[in-house]
Amino acid sequence: MESLYDVQQLLKRFGIIIYLGKRIYDIEMMSQEVKHLYEGRLIDQQTYLRAWTILKREHQIELSREEK
Questions:
Q1: InterPro entries annotated for this entry (predicted)?
Q2: What three-state secondary structure class fits 37?
Q3: In 3-state terms, what secondary structure has residue 20?
Q4: Quick one: pLDDT at residue 16?
């Protein structure tokens, strides 16, 4: 898993499709869903941490875009 698209595909495997209309909101919701999957023991810790890292990076990118 290397990109936001990969995280979306992970969520899609569990029937979770997120589209809120604004990319930063989508990323925040994906973060919550990944956390719930991990807490429910549907994904392992390595997968959770990798997805969390990607989502955190993408969130920072979106914040910097909004500041400009």
A1: YqgQ-like, YqgQ-like_sf
A2: helix
A3: coil
A4: 98
